[in-house]
Each structure stands twice: as structure tokens, then as C-alpha cells.
Amino acid sequence: MSTRQLLPLIGALFALYIIWGSTYFAIAVGVASWPPLMMAGIRFLAAGVLLLGWLLATGHKLPARRPLLNAALIGVLLLAVGNGFVTLAEHQHVPSGIAAVMVATVPLFTLCFSRFFGIATRKLEWLGIAIGLAGIVMLNSGGNLNGNPWGALLILIGSLSWAFGSVYGSRIVLPTGMMAGAIEMLAAGIVLLAASWLSGETLTRVPFLVRDRRPGLSGHLWLADRH
After folding, report:
1. Which pTM value belongs to this model?
2. Which part of the chain is the EamA domain (predicted)?
3. How many CB atoms lie within 10 A of CB 88?
4. Please, what are the averages of pLDDT over each run of 10 residues along the chain (227 residues)?
5. Boundaries of domain holding 135
């Protein structure tokens, strides 16, 4: 792999692991003062509006109807369900050990869905995931792995949705560049805010300002597109 190819990969991994990885800490702090669905919805809607506005202002055009709807669907799978359910679980005070083990199942589910869609997988990939899962369980074995089973189930469903959306998104036509991320965040924000309204959430405390997640999402989309 040439240096020109390696640098974008390093940048995407940095955005995914460092910038996006810290989002779970931000969620844990945020749900202390925000209703979970409302917080997640406002985050994604604000980020989507800002990113889409910037893209349109710099000369980008809205995609055709099919790619636009595809991106909206992926946004619901990855962000509204995948991230939204994790936010709900953290609001229910799921221990970090359980959260780590549940989220670590995403690569395993991703390989399973890849086989379902006819994408070739290697034995080395399965071995790497097995070692990773075993390592996470061992690291958390001395901690508190008991907790709210419903919260753990929410994270598991979110992980399944994220894995399916990641694989399915690589098999359909999506808008190019950051336009896909903008539409995905807009769709997720609308769905989450609708769910917040239907569930009767209200803001009763001074909210915590949650930072942007666009760099991390862009990194994930870039890596998934090259799977």
C-alpha cells in the first residue's frame, strides 16, 4: 500500500477510534441532563443540517431520489437504532463492562451479515474477532457484568442494526462523499425526535452541550465503502 493510500486510511481510523470512540463517554454525560431520544435526535439533526448546509453552499447538489432514500434508510439503521438504542441503554445505567461486551459483537454480526449477502470472509477475520471478544470479556471479568438486562438487550439490538446497516450500505447506491453522512444524520435526527415526542420526553434540566460527531461518521462511511 502506497503512502498516498495509507494516509486516508490512518485518518479514517483515527476519526473512528479517537473522535467517535469518545462519543460513548459524551452520551453517558449527556443523558444525565437530557432525555435520551431527544438528546440523540437533536445531535443528529443539528449535525445533519450544518453539514448539508455547508455542502449546498459549496456547490454540491442533492442526490437523486433512490440514493437519497437509501441514505435515509442507512441513517435509521446505523444512527437512529444503532446509536439511539445505546443512548437509551446508557440512560438506564448499563455498566460499562456490559456495554463493552455488547458493542464488541458488532464485528461478529458484520461478518455474519456479510456471508448472508454473499461477501467472502476469511478464517483469519473470524479468528481475529474471536480473540478480540475473548479479550474484552477477560478485561471486564473482574468488574461488574451484572446490570439491567433490558439495557443490555437494547445495546444488542443496536449492535445488530449497526452491523446490518454497515453491510447493507456497502451493497446499495448511496450519495457520494459527505452527502451520504448529511442525509443519514438528518433522517436519524427526524426519527429520533419523532420517537422522543411520541414517548412524551420533556427537558427538565439545563442541557449538556454534546459535541459534533461528523468526523467519526465520515471515517466509518469511508472505511465501510472500502470493505
Report:
1. 0.77
2. 12-140
3. 23
4. 65 63 71 88 95 96 96 97 90 72 80 84 80 68 62 87 92 93 96 96 63 49 51
5. 3-225
